[in-house]
Amino acid sequence: MKYLLSAAAASALMAGTAFAGNIEPAPAEPVIAPAPAPVFSSPNWTGFYAGGQLGYANIDTDIAGVDGDGLIGGLTTGYDYDLGNWVVGAGLDYDWTDVGLGNVPETTVDNIFRAKLRGGYKLGNGLLYATGGYAMADTNNVGDSDGYFVGGGYEHLITENISLGGEVLYHEFDSFDGAAAGADVEATTAQVRATFRF
After folding, report:
1. Considering only 57-71, 124-138, 179-193, which range has the smallest mean pLDDT?
2. Can you tell me the distance from the alpha carbon of 155 to that of 72, in angstroms, rounded to the nearest whole number?
3. What pLDDT digit, counting tens, does each position of 63-88 carry?
4. How many helices (H) and strands (E) does the chain have?
5. Domains of the chain by range and CATH?
6. Any residues with CB less than 8 A from the CB of 173 and at least 6 apart, and which?
7. Dist CA 119 CA 126 (whole Å)
8. pTM, to two decimals
């Protein structure tokens, strides 16, 4: 009897061990690796652009009372080349205006044309730049004059192809045809601009 009980206990133990060995552990939940943080990609400024601009012009001369200010606006086009952190480019502006010049009867500055170079540093999606070049201003009755301009601005890409920005320029011109000899003419413009990049 004692032998039978020992045999039964051993069988039960073996059966329980065999049964336990057949139990499979519950599958572990899969470990999902977190998505990598997005890597900021600096935009590429290389390409042609065209757009419009609008702002304010202030015109002064060294003749007492001959000055004025008013609205200015026009078209801009150009090409930029991206060098990595830096961008260089060239462009053309043509602005219309109707700034009357004080004591000179019925004289207004009608338009300003610019051929410009610019170079700037990329700040995220923006470009902080300096610019300068050739300028020509035309009036309604005292002719036109060649000169130069210098200035700076900031342009920000709001999409891959559309940018918004602002620019402040200082212009200096020699005597206009028919103006008093030696008259210096200075113009300061501040404009906002929108461009489409191709």
Report:
1. 179-193
2. 19
3. 778 889 999 999 999 999 999 999 99
4. 1, 8
5. 48-197 (2.40.160.20)
6. 135, 137, 145, 146, 147, 184, 185, 186, 187
7. 13
8. 0.76
